[in-house]
Design goal:
The structure holds 2 protein chains of 2 kinds. Chain A is of the alpha/beta class. Chain A has 3 domains: 63 residues, no CATH class; 240 residues, Type I PLP-dependent aspartate aminotransferase-like (Major domain) (Aspartate Aminotransferase, domain 2, 3-Layer(aba) Sandwich); 127 residues, Aspartate Aminotransferase, domain 1, CATH 3.90.1150.10. The radius of gyration of chain A is 25 Å and the shape is globular. In chain A, α5 packs parallel to α6 and α10 packs across α14. Chain A is built from 15 helices and 16 strands. By secondary structure, chain B is an alpha+beta fold. Chain B has one domain: Sufe protein. Chain: A (Alpha-Beta Complex). Chain B has a 3-stranded antiparallel beta sheet. Chain B is globular. Chain B starts with a helix and ends in a 6-residue tail after the last helix. The chains are: A alpha/beta, B alpha+beta. Chains A and B meet through α11 and α14 of A and α1, β1, α2, β2 and β3 of B.
């Protein structure tokens, strides 16, 4: 079909309307029927045209082209914040909304039985992914935050007769730190272990911190900002020898790197659905047989009394499917994303001077890069690049202008912490995207540094700019 | 997310740079690594006939400085001093409350530059000591 400009200056292009709106980022403003598209000019989601609307427009004389739709949304490199739900996961979940809608707790009819069978299958998948001895060791929760709260408070209240000392690290997620802070107001003692310049907890520091009344050690497996992988197996060994319960927040690890609870010697483990291409609002807590927790959510006694509340069946089915896919694709994705991340790192370090990678050079999640660019405000860099979806730190703290507490714990100066960007690569990222991102970032950084009064090439002449910068403590 | 006006001032900043033989230079900072704004200007016969800015901080900071230099260029010193952060924020469109301080800092940098000029003039006009 020919493309013909009609009265209002619009071309109707199959699934796409090319409007007279100014080009932004080189893309047209697409409208695809049946959903929403991203308008890069106004930075809002705009409703798409329905099939009927396309038909109506066609009847008005608009020519319909058979061009495929274009996704002009930013390149997504914030997979630590969340991940898109895999198509296979969505398909697996769908029947459990309106068709197989039963409550797994309903034991008297087939609706409940079908739902129960599905959740138990999912439980097996979760257990399989983390090499748990039995699916009975898996409790479904509303997400990793809930799992962390259940782990920490569940152990604290359950074992308070044996002691009131908890060991954790300074770089844990807030979902671990906040329950610890609350327990401190209730008479518990918490040791926050420091980390080294790479974000690693030294096993010896754990050993030194263990006291006669220590009941819990809680250490994340992978840090969400810098990707550092903790030596959990060594610490797990120490904990087991001293009869201390060992919990890990593995939300950023499960489905991304091999997470084997028996090899790591953990007793309790939190994981998250939406961090591994599953749905939001669902997660799990692994509790090794023999470890008892005090529940925090009371009610109908579901999940053997550990977590009351009707099971989120579609969510749990989705989580199970996500675990199955992760097991299948983990090795190949790790290799692929590691290569992409290294390409991104090398590209940026080659194109941009005064850049510094934060975190461990090798003990880090293959998908993660955290990098500081001196004389560049990280918020400004992200704002200047609507073409890329990035984060300056954890999503939970992204609203605040405070430097990341994780980066400060590494010993980074505020100067470097405020100029740090986090990349979380994922399944949808490609080599072309990485190359484009390197170009865009290098270009924006050049512009930002040109505009900065603190970054002045000495040959700019005139008033001695260094006299101004000399007043600024570095 | 960044408004298109603010993004435009970053991509096409007005009056970005530094005047080597400036009559007055002012720098205003909020913990230098968060926000730094530098204004350099030339004043002839009471008129700001050249003004440039440099800024490090979020894009709103850069846009505030950019818009401010546009507003002040060609104005008398008195009129330049009268430019308010409210006028700046209105020129930029909707600025969230937590960003309004960027406008104040741009104004303070301008005032610092004008003060620097004024002090320089006063110093230059003092009689040279004898004996």
């Amino acid at each position: 079909m020919d493309s013909v400009k009609k009265g209002r200056g619009d071309l109707l292009c199959g699934r796409m309307v090319i409007s007279d709106a100014p080009l932004c980022c080189g893309f047209f403003r697409p409208l695809v029927w049946g959903g929403k598209s991203w308008d890069p000019t106004s930075h809002t989601a705009v409703p798409d045209m329905t099939q009927n609307q396309v038909t109506d427009r066609s009847a008005e004389g608009y020519a319909v082209l058979a061009e495929p739709s274009v996704d002009s949304r930013p390149i997504y490199m914030d997979h630590h914040a969340t991940t898109p739900v895999d198509d296979e996961v969505v398909s697996a979940m769908l029947p459990y909304f309106a068709q197989n809608f039963g409550n797994p707790s309903s034991t008297t009819h087939v609706y409940g039985a079908v739902a129960r069978e599905a959740t138990e299958r999912a439980r097996e998948e979760v257990a399989e992914l983390i090499n748990a001895a039995s699916a009975d060791e898996i409790i479904f929760t509303g997400g990793a935050t809930e799992s962390d709260n259940l782990a920490i408070e569940g152990v604290a209240y359950g074992f308070s007769h044996r002691g009131k000392h908890i060991i954790t690290s300074a770089i844990e997620h807030k979902a671990v730190l906040q329950p610890c802070k609350r327990l401190e107001t209730e008479g518990f003692r918490v040791t926050y272990l420091p980390v080294d310049q790479y974000g690693l907890v030294e096993p010896d520091s754990v050993l030194r911190a263990i006291a006669h009344d220590t009941i819990l050690i809680s250490l994340q497996y992978v840090n969400s900002e810098i990707g550092t992988i903790q030596p959990l197996d060594m610490i797990g060994q120490l904990a087991r020898e001293r009869n201390v319960i060992f919990h890990t927040d593995a939300a950023q690890a499960t489905g991304k790197i091999r997470t084997d609870v028996r090899q790591l010697k953990v007793d309790v483990l939190s994981l998250s659905g939406h961090k591994m291409y599953g749905p939001k609002g669902v997660g799990a807590l692994y509790v090794r047989k023999g470890v008892d927790l005090e529940p925090i959510l009371l009610g109908g006694g579901q999940e053997k009394g550990y977590r009351a509340g009707t099971l989120n069946v579609p969510g749990i089915v989705g989580l199970g499917k996500a675990c199955e896919i992760a097991r299948r694709d983990l090795e190949s994705e790790c290799k692929r994303l590691s290569a992409l991340r290294d390409r991104l790192t090398e590209g940026l370090l080659k194109r941009v001077a005064l850049a510094r990678v934060n975190g461990h050079p090798t003990r880090r999640l293959p998908h993660n890069l955290n990098i500081s660019f001196e004389y560049v405000d990280s918020e400004a860099l992200i704002e200047s690049l609507p073409e890329i979806a990035l984060s300056a730190g954890s999503a939970c703290t992204s609203q605040s202008k405070e430097p990341s507490y994780v980066l400060l714990a590494l010993g980074l100066s505020e100067r470097l912490a405020l100029s740090a960007i986090r990349f979380g690569l994922g399944r949808c990222n490609t080599t072309e995207q990485v190359d484009r991102v390197v170009d865009l970032i290098a270009s924006s950084i050049e512009q930002l540094r040109n505009l900065s009064p603190l970054f002045m090439p000495p040959r700019s002449g005139g008033v001695d700019a260094s006299g101004l910068t000399a007043k600024i403590p570095l | 997310m960044t408004g298109s006006v603010i993004l435009d001032h970053f991509r096409n900043p007005r009056n970005a740079g530094y005047i080597a033989d400036a009559d007055g230079v002012g720098i205003e900072q909020q913990n230098p690594w968060r926000i730094s704004i530098q204004i350099s200007l030339k004043i002839r016969e009471g008129i700001v006939n050249d003004i440039k800015f440099k800024a490090q901080g979020c894009l709103t900071t850069i846009a505030c400085a950019s818009v401010m230099t546009d507003m002040v260029r060609g104005k008398s010193v008195e009129d330049a001093l009268a430019v308010s952060s409210l006028r700046l924020s209105e020129a930029l469109g909707t600025i969230p409350e937590e960003k309004l301080h960027c406008c104040s800092l741009a104004i303070r940098a301008l005032h610092a530059a004008i003060d620097d000029y004024t002090v320089g003039r006063r110093r230059d006009s003092l009689p040279v000591g004898t004996g």
